[in-house]
Amino acid sequence: MKSALHILLSIVLVGIHLVGISQTNGFKSDDFILESKLNTVSEKLITGDTITNQVGLSDQSSIQEKKQKATQKVDTVKSIKLIEIAELSSDTIANEEIEPKIGSPIAKINDIFSISNIFWSIVLIVIGYFLINILIKITDSLAERNSRYRFTIKGLIPIIKILGWALVTTTVIAGVFQPPFETVLAVTASISIAVGFAAQDILKNIFGGIMIVFDKPFQVGDKIEIGNYYGEVVEIGLRSTRIVTKDDSLVTVPNSEAVNNAVSNSNSGESNCQVVAEIWLPIDLNTAKARSIALESAQVSPYVYLNKPIVVLFVNEVKQQRSYLKMRVKAYVSDTRNEFVFMSDVTERVVKELLRQEVIKKEDLI
Predict the structure, then answer these.
(1) What is the pLDDT of residues 217-266, one digit of tens each?
(2) What integer pLDDT is reported at residue 293 of this predicted model?
(3) Would you say residue 328 has pLDDT above 90?
């Protein structure tokens, strides 16, 4: 009888041990092991009945008590196993519910646009802004100190702007936010669609500014005419071009208009440009004498550029129902910034000399 009890207890312990192992092998293996152990216990119980019959009727009551205890132990093991299975199932379901949340797009966006990333991106943008402005001021200062290479040096300013902001943008995106490639594609597509509908003019101006920088129809320092405006180019930005007129007015022209419309450039990157001074004179004027005076007046001007020719032309014009000769003195100024000063100086010298030599009279001037 003691040997039968020992066998029964050994079976129970082995069953408990196998139950613990089955938790790592999945629910299906757990059910199978449990079922097999219950069958084993049942077989042992049957064996116990056989032993009981062999021992005799006198020991039947003791064997029944042992059988009841064994059955209770098996039921206890089964209950514990069912509880463990239920707890494991609930944990698995909870993990399955949590995992999608952790890997969801919202969680990824929160990781990318974290407070620390936003902070460092703002810091980099501010630093880049100041560095770009410092480089522009240094470049402009060097250009002003060297008149010979002023236009060449000033031509670097738009390139510094474009490359500087491109570097800042790349550093912020690739160095700080570090978005996945799929996210970059999705965001780029979304931005492209939004910009395509809402910011077409801005994109035209930006691409226009890039075309101006690389195609160079004009550059900073040139004297150009766009539409009804004529003046010196002082800035070529990503969105617009700014020129200063002869009246010292700052005019902003969108880059898309500067690219799509005709542009007249007076100097094309050179420090000198042609200046035309027009003087209205009477029809019976001695043109030979007037031409000689005009040539001499232009040659003695402190602003003239003598390496290029000086030309004097006469054109018949009708004004206020009277016929006049319009004298046009075409000469080159040494510095484009002295264009209007040179024009005024030549006009004053010619008129004074014509009056002094009595080539014209005061009443002939209009």
Answers:
(1) 888 889 999 888 999 998 888 888 999 998 889 999 999 888 888 899 98
(2) 93
(3) yes
Amino acid letter at 361? K
CA distance linking residue 187 with residue 105, whole number of Å: 13
Q: Model's pTM, two decimal places?
A: 0.54
At position 201, the amino acid (one-letter code) is D
pLDDT tens digits, one per residue of 77-132: 556 655 655 555 555 555 554 444 445 556 666 677 788 888 888 999 999 999 99
Q: What is the pLDDT of residues 280-301, one digit of tens each?
A: 898 888 899 999 999 999 999 9
Q: How far apart are CA 218 and CA 221, in angstroms?
A: 9
pLDDT at 142 over 90: no
Q: How far is CA 365 from the centre of its chain?
A: 60
